[in-house]
Every structure is written in C-alpha cells, then in structure tokens.
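fwd from M.: "can u put these together and see what the complex looks like"

so here's what she sent:
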Amino acid sequence: MKIAIVDYGAGNLPSVERALGKLGAQTERAVAAEKLHCAQAIVLPGVGHFGAFVHGLRKSNLALPLRAAFESGKPILGICLGLQAMFASSEEAPGEPGLAFFSEEVCALPTDVKSPHIGWNQVRRMHPSKLLHGIAEDAYFYFAHSYAAPASAPCTVAACDHGFPFAAVIERSNLAAVQFHPEKSGETGAQVLRNFLESVA
Amino acid sequence: MTLAHRIIPCLDVDAGRVVKGIEFVGLRDMGDPAALAGRYNTEGADELVVLDISASYQGRATFLETIRRVARQLHIPLTAGGGIRTLEEGQAVLRAGADKVAVNTAAVERPELLSELAQQFGAQAVVLSIDVKRKGCSWEPYTRGGRDPTGKDAAQWALEAVSRGAGEILLTSIDRDGTCTGFDCELTRKIASTVPVPVIASGGAKAFEDFLAVFTAGRADAALAASIFHTATHSIGALKKFLAERGVSVRLSR
C-alpha cells in the first residue's frame, strides 16, 4: 500500500515513515500535488506552529490538492498539528486560515494547567472508533502540544482532558486525525496506525 | 484519565559509546547506545534522553550518527542535547531523529536561541537544561558541564526561558548528581511550582523511594536517571509498579 506523507519542509518525518514502514506500508514524501494523487492514502503529520504549517502547505501548493483529496474520499490521517490544520483557524495564528475541513477554531490550552501538555495520557471514548479498535480503554498515548480542538468539535470519537476536554481522536468518513503522536506511542500507537492502514486496504 | 508521571533514562554518550563519569576523573564504558535504547524502549521507558558529553566540534558527526541509530530503536520520544549552540545545530539533531532538543550553555549566553528554536519547531520541541548548585536558600545555574557559575537565580532563569519559548525544563542538581542521595525535592518543587511548563527532575536517583519522593513532595512531572538503569540493578517496569502501588500515576506496560 502506498502512503503519501505530506512534507511541507519541517517536522520529524522519519519517525512517521519508520512506524508505517514497520507495518508494511510503502511511504513516499509528498512535496508536490502529484504524489497525493498517486497515493492510496495521505498522512499529514505536523509539529511546530499552526501559522507556519498552513502557510507552508499553501506555499508548497499542497493545500488545495489536500482539499481535493478530502473531497474525493481519499483516506487522510492527521497527526498532532496535522489534526489542528484540518480546522478553520487557530488561536495560535489569528487570521491564518487552516484547511477548514472542520469549521471550528483550535484553542490555546488554559493557563491553569501546564502547557505544553507533554507526556502520556489516556482518552475517553465518546463514539465507536476505527482507529482505537483493539486498544484497551485505559491505554496511554503520547501528547506534545499547546493548542487543541475542543471536544465539542463534531466527529470527536475520543477526548482527553487537560485544562478543557479536547479532541484526541476525530473520525468522519475518509478523515481521521489524532492529537497524540501514534509514531511515539509505543505498541498502542502502532495499533492506531495499523487500524488506519486496515481501514484503507 | 490522568497524565502519567514519566520515567526517562538518560544516555550520556562520548565518541559513540554510553559512558558514566566517575567523580569527574574518568569515564566507564556502559555499552552501545542503540542497544541500551532498544532495551529501554521494550522495558517501558516513557522517553529517552541522549546527551553528548564530549560536545566537541569533531564529535558532532559521531553524535548525529548516534541519534540516528538510537532513534531507529525507539517508539517513544527522544530528546538530544549537549553542546548545541545554534538553530542549525538544533535542526540537525531533530533531522537525525530527535523529537526535542535540549540546550543549556548556549541559551544562557544567548537566550534568543530559545525563541529561535521555538518559532521554528514549536515550544514542545525545546527543552531548557539547567544544572544548579545550592547557594544559601536559592539555586544558581552553572554552564559548561557544571564548571561556570552564571550569577543567575534558577527560578528566575527558568521563568525567563519559558517566556522565550522553552516548553520543558530539565533540572539537574549538581550537588546531588552521582551522589546517590536522592533527587533534590526542595529544588524540584520550587521550580515546578514556579514555571507553567513540565519539569524533569534529575540528579541523585538511587532507590525507588527517591522517585516516589520527587513525584509527590517534589511535584516533578518526570524523573530522569542514568546509571541506575544501565546497570540493570533497577528495571523500569519494577519501578513503575512500585510507584503505581503507591498511588502515583504511571504508564504501565502490558
């Protein structure tokens, strides 16, 4: 199976590539739109700043092809900032539009908790989830972020709490996204990626 | 649903090997970094830290290769540090496979480095390492591997670093480091209650009780240790079980 990993010029892609490769997927870095067309599925990983990320996507002419892929029904998995980029905007970069697959805004974690939210946390299941299939209810996932989409966002299938309830796993038709890092979440994270690959196959 | 307290083994590496300093006079070889990393990944470590203790210009290429070899063994986050002075050097360790970069001396000399790194890679990728010695009723940061006093106050420096973009503080007590007398809980509590970011306690770990103390009395978010794990006298699994039985939230491997 051929997976395009969106490469907008930053981020730690090797760990995502390695994690998918170990599960038997063939990955290819997509720096241009053609690679997105050829792939069976797309992974959108991201770390860093929302503004730099969505700006980088537009500058690389990847934002519109990503929307086209979404509209054509191609499976897309967003990871961390990749999840946030699927929203309309973020408090991290006011005025900088996101991919807007979802209409809500990503919010800063409140100041009464430690931010960034860094470390291993559990999630609360709200709806049946393809990505969490076969994973224990009390399993831990590795998070590293200062902003999050509120759990009230539609299609949130699992939430986590840190200052406020936020979306940890989102699933809607061909879109899937996780706020944690499956590629850094040990065997549990590998199962999330395996579930994604199986949903594509 | 609770954020787990993290247990973080640390690999001090020199010329591609894990070493342990013996009272600053010599180095003992503790093995291959990739082999140790693989073991810790399997044993349930929550993260791994790799520090280049030689931090020499000539050793930089070797260190990057070590990061690449270590990263291949891991399904958990990796922090790399030791002698990183510029944005480009930070980028090099992240490209080699690290998720976070730890800076110390260079951030004291040029605090803008923290902002540069955070703007480029996000605060979650920037760890400020502070090595401190007790000075009366406060603590003074030291640079260059604990050699040079900075004249700063540890709590104030930590706060400034966070305002500039550090997303985590790796706090080492020089007084306790290598003494096996336990973490400095008073120091850890002081810094952890001062800064709005997670604090990793380091220096002095010997017994399971030391970890319990630093997570409860010390309010640490994570605890780091090196040699007690390398020698396999303490397994990470057994430590986590000990902590869980005493009510500390930890991620238990299954």
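replying to her w this: Chain A touches chain B through 40 residues (CB under 8 Å).
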